[in-house]
Structure formats: C-alpha cells, structure tokens
Design goal:
This protein is an alpha+beta fold. It is built from 4 helices and 16 strands.
Length: 246
Amino acid sequence: MTIRWTYAFVDRPHAVLDPARAFWTAVTDTRLSEPRGTEGEFVTLLAEGADPCVKMQGVGSGPGGAHLDFCAEDVPAFVDRALRLGADAVSAHDGWSVLRSPAGQLFCAVPWHGESVRPPVVDGSRLDQVSLDIGPGSYDAEVAFWSALLPDWASLPGALPEFHVLRPPSGLPIRVLLQRLGADRPAAAHLDLACADIDATGARHERLGARAVARGTHWTVMRDPVGGVYCLTGRDPETGGLPNRS
C-alpha cells in the first residue's frame, strides 16, 4: 500500500483550458503531453530530464481547483484503507479509482509507473503542495483521516494554528497542507508554490497573466489568467519548509 509518487492536478473549466495550460506550463517550465480522455480533458506537464508530478484536467462544471493523485504499489489495498477510514467511493475505473474524503475532497488512487526523479526548481520556485481548504466543523476529522491514510508521512502542526502539514517521505514531490477556514463551506483545494522570493515570482507570474489578490504572513494569494486561485508561499523550494522549519 506504499505511496511511491504523487501528482498535483490543476483542475480548470474545460472552456478555458488553452490559456490555463499555457500559463501552467510556463511557470513550471514544462511541455504538454498528448491529450487524453474522451474530450481531450487530461494532460500531463512534462519536465525535461525528470518525471512529471503535475497534471491538468478540464472540468465540465464549476470553477475547478486542485486535487491529488496517489500512485500506490497496491491500488486496491489503498482504496480499501481509505474506505475503512471514512472515504467514499466515487467511481472505479480500469486500475484506478476516484474517492472522496470525509469532508468531501476528491482524490484519486492510481498505479505507480516507476516515477522517481523530481522536477527541478524553476526560477526560484517549485509547485510542491496541494492545500486542502476545510471548514472548522470538519477540520479535526479531516486531519485525522489524512494522517491515518498516509502513515508513512510526517503529520505536523503548521506555522500557524490553522495549518497542518503532511510531509511525504524523501523523494516524493507533493506535500499536503490542511487549512482550517474561518467558516464552514464545501471542501476545496488549491495549489501552492514554494518560492525563494515571493515578490520576484509574483512579478514573473503577473507578466504571464496572473494577478495578486491578497497577502498573508508567508504567502500571496494569486489568480491565474483564467481565475483559478493558487498561492505563492515563502517556503524553501528545495525542502518545502519555512526558514528554520523542515
């Protein structure tokens, strides 16, 4: 049931996939795979000399967001564990499954295809985290669920009381952050980039069509050219941690 690799999925409305794909390939220094799916809705962002860890999906309704794919050595065992811990089965496919966490966050269990080489830092930043945004009524149970589902990951309090970090074993490319919201609302998720210099990365992203919408203690909230929310965070792009934190 070991998790051998992780993917961050960028979910954006199908009608605006082209500009979304252009932006996210630019900021990650990647190129698109051939489209997959009945409507060409899936692509992988391919990194030169490394294994991919970011994919994109066109969604038919809603504003999109993000989700995680977990590449497991034993997909059925991982699915069974998730269900026993309180997840719901959404759909089963040939070799992979879509699940929903107790708070309602979608995620996928997929086979591992030998990925092992993490993409490099790009211009001082790295897309390395998916933040699960959870209302206060579901937050504690959601932290318990993810911590139990990923027992080999370090489960740690964040820098602020409203954050909890799930740090993967060395070599896996995507961390999980759980963020407690101020009010209850349906679960959602967004992408986080670790940045050596938030302002410099933000300026580069703005030149590519993004815009800053809010600033926090160690982060800037951005919208990509099609309106998708993501964050630039002041974490070390190599380690994923804040200064003086792992």
